Amino acid sequence: MNSGLGYKYPNKTTVFGTETPDVPSTFHFPTWHQDTVMWLINNRHVNMIGVDTPSTDFGQSTDFLAHVLLAKDNVVGLENVANLDKPPVSMSQ
Which residues does UniProt call coiled coil (predicted)? Predict the structure, then answer.
């Protein structure tokens, strides 16, 4: 998922969307919704998903449901992926 957040690295304040990046309950960054994760697993049968954000779960998550759903179906979740806005032409079709 290319959220466009990649350009904010390595500034922790902008990456985590908070003035207190050491306090997880204050995190604000885009990522997958658990319904979308389930849809990708069930309808696209993905083996891997990636995000350019710190997590496949939303910042203030306490149940980490996206991680749970991915793990349950053996789907790899890649986080902090660079250059999602620049996929190679040969691999993007």
Answer: none
Instruction: Write out the residue range of the structural domain in which residue 66 sits.
Output: 6-20+27-78
Within a domain: 86: no
Give the CA count within 13 Å in the CB-facing half-sphere of 70.
22
CA distance 9 to 65: 25
User: What is the distance between the alpha carbons of residues 56 and 34, in angstroms, rounded to a whole number?
Assistant: 9
For 16-48, the pLDDT digits (tens) are 999 999 999 999 999 999 999 999 999 999 999
Dist CA 64 CA 68 (whole Å): 6
